[in-house]
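Dig into this one:

. . .
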Amino acid sequence: MAQGAILDIPTARVFQPLLKPARYKGAKGGRGSAKSWQFAGMAVEAAYCEKVDIVCIREVQLTLDQSVKKLIEQTIQRYGLGQHFDVQRDKIVSQRGGVMIFRGMQDFNAENIKSLEGFDIAWVEEAQTITQRSLDLLRPTIRKDGSELWFSWNPNSETDPIEQFFAPENRPKDSVVIEAHYWDNPWFPAVLRDEMQHDRKRDPDKYQHIWCGAYRKMSEALVFKNWRVEEFDAPAGSTFRLGADWGYANDPTVLVRCYLAGDREIRVDYCEGMVGCEIDQTPDLFDRVPDSRKWFITADSSRPETVSYMRSHGFPRINSAMKGAGSVEEGVEFLKSYDLVVHPRCEGLINELRSYTWKVDRLTGQVLPVLEDKNNHYIDALRYACEGVRKGQKAKPASASRPVVHRPVAGGWMRS
């Protein structure tokens, strides 16, 4: 192909608005939509036709393997343009004299980012991970006349900086943003279609997030999925187990009552909580749980003076929990090894079971094996209530219920 010849690069209809000049170009959507391939094709076409300098950016890039360099190399080869580009170890140089480089924003500060001031195009891939700091550094740096900033991303949360930047009420005037999904991709391959169909049948939340571009519902990060809400009456002769967690200024003081049903079921029939509960109000709070003065209560050991106060005010069977390294994780894993049945009147516990999560790496979206220390006061009380049972029998291994997360991967189709 002679230099200057017209390139025949097919473009899906959904991406056509991106072919017109604009200061800001964004493409968001689910996996298999070809967003990354579209921008790679645009970058190769621009570098083939004229001298342009392009920086391809991720928020974090420790090695070139994490960059879009390989994708651009594949695009060059796909369109038979290998003789027009010099692919080097850490950059790609076009015969027009332009260069493509690959950088992570974590390596830039207000001074060294000035090295990008003469670049024509900045393409930010996986833009859902870009921080506000990085946006504030990058935007005024790419300042050359006619320069453009491209962003491609799989939506994660509406609070992400890139979502806020392109929100209709905030969007810059000279910008174009499109949404693309697998059904917009005329080259969507069979292998991805099989994966999509599997996710759609098996995990609707995952399907909506990964394939349809919906915001993450955090279903993968939720700690407890082994519970249900059900009305029931405790049978006569039940052995009740009570647990208490002490609140502070913004946290509730909580008492939870439960009992074991069958081999692997814990039923929670009462729980009471109060934010800003003074110590002299605590006995009245506990009395809202039937027979709480009768049964043993295992309480948070961080407030021994409160435990002592309760003993002397009508709760002689209250004792402090046995805490130690790993006790929280051990207690959570124990609860996960049972089916939890919660009475609908236990609204505080129900709300926490819906929102108690593992931490999520903001940059990668990976669910971490670290518990978020929030939305857990009723859950902590339930852990304490079951402490005696947990100590008396062996729970399932922790590895059996650790979160397994499949990270969404942008792009992934091959043009025919």
